[in-house]
Amino acid sequence: MSSFRSEPFLWIHLTGIVLVPLWLEIVWLGLSIGTPLLWFWLELLLLAVVGILPILWMQLVRPFDIFSILLFSVKPEQLSSEQRQILAQFKTRSHRIVSIITAIMMILILWFLDSFAPLLIPINPWSQGWHLIGLIIAAVSLLASNLFLQVPVSVLRILLSNQASLAATEPLPSDQIAREFTIPGFWIDSILAKEQLG
């Protein structure tokens, strides 16, 4: 078996983490718009429910299928045995633990951003706008930042595991992938040249 670390989809999704700071900056800007409508803890709870809980639920129940790019996903039946072993790693207990820890970290980051949101008011041109719009911007951006953090962290956990552990993993049956994973976009036979060569 070749090293699973040469799987390009792992590295493609790992690089998604570079977008997290950008999305968090937009969350921060959104929180600094207008005057808070509710108690700060209630706003944070609502933001967490909208921006963190859905991605956490996905990762716990139907993890994101990493064999996809943008609007296209590799058909489950086209995945190799090694690729299905990688997918099986997303259904393990350790994956769920890492997803929960990541979600808790995101809640702490949200609290931090909200605490320091007043610092942006002097430089935010929309600071006098409607706070509800700011909350919507913050919620959508938090959802995106959570997605671009959860998936790379899960991929990193796999990259840090050893070859023997993956080799001992039972490949996930192709006919289970569609109901066990969140598969975005259109299904196609191949995305990367490596798959065509394999």
TrEMBL record:
InterPro entries in the record: LCTMP-like
Coiled-coil intervals, chain numbering: none
Keywords: Membrane, Transmembrane, Transmembrane helix
The keyword Transmembrane is annotated on this UniProt entry: yes
Transmembrane domains' residue ranges: 9-31, 37-57, 97-123, 129-149
Stated name of the protein: Low-complexity tail membrane protein
Source organism of this protein record: Stanieria cyanosphaera (strain ATCC 29371 / PCC 7437)
Lineage start: Bacteria, Bacillati, Cyanobacteriota, Cyanophyceae, Pleurocapsales
